[in-house]
Amino acid sequence: MRTAIEHADDPRVLEVTVDLGRLEGMWARLFSRRQEQQDEHTRAVTAAWRAMVDRDAVAMAVTAVRERAGLAEARRPLGDLAAEALAAARALLRALADHTGWTALRTAVRNALAVGRAEGAVNAVAIAAERLGPHAVQLEWDIAFQHAYRSLERLDELWAEADTWLARMLDGTASDLGRALAGAAEDGASREEMIDSAMDILVSDDAAAVAFTVDWAMTTAADDGALALYQSEGVQRVDVITAGDGRVCEACASYEAGSPWSSLDVPRLPTHPTCRCVYAADVSLSHFAAWLI
Prior knowledge:
This is Phage head morphogenesis domain-containing protein. By secondary structure, the chain is mostly helical. It has one domain (2-291). 61% of the residues lie in helices and 5% in strands. The protein is built from ten helices and five strands. The chain has helices spanning 2-6, 25-50, 55-69, 78-94, 102-131, 141-150, 157-186, 191-203, 208-232, 250-257, and strands at 18-19, 237-241, 243-244, 261-262, 278-280. The strands form two sheets. The protein has a three-stranded antiparallel β-sheet. Helix 3 packs across helix 8 (191-203), helix 4 (78-94) runs antiparallel to helix 7 (157-186) and helix 5 (102-131) crosses helix 6 (141-150). It is elongated. 39% of the residues are buried.
């Protein structure tokens, strides 16, 4: 991070400080754990999502698009077709909230957020320990995570956050589905072909909007978890450290260059979807003796 600050005028300043392709030591452990957890919870949320998707309901949405678009009659303009398809997609997905599987999906998202928050707190302590020197103290990652996770068991705000992320997931999926239906209709696809296209989007193993939302939600939760720990420990100054695949966006680079930030004014991470930049601060480890070896 100091390199980026000291050489802020260098055209290579957008080169990332923590290169995800060349991780070692604590950073390798930190990001591998994050990825493993995101993969696990993406699978869990996707499974809960797929369990609610009913082909008959999708078929009804496709029929509605075809009828509204007048595919059996004169073709409507593409703009009208896109609007009709998006409206049908939104109606289909809004109905999921009344599905018996909605509670399971909501719980899966809430659990993903709790894991993200807990891991964020663990990351904050791991980075603080690393700043003391690579061999000063060692973090017992799994024990630390268990302690942090248990502290969130009764955090009711996670349910409200889960609802916010679910709304984003539905919006993203509706956009993807609407585009697919409009494109298929414009290409003259049959009703069955349109249904198949819709099902591919909704129940694929890596449903794009679902995976995208879980990634963004868990990264946000991790950053929130780190900031919450800093606040509880009375930290006054917080750094932003850029992390990515070789380079970083201008906004993230400027946040790093502006470090350290007052804990009240530090920019909120993630700056954008798929952002992997992290917070760092000096934290007294006396309250975390049970987490250390």
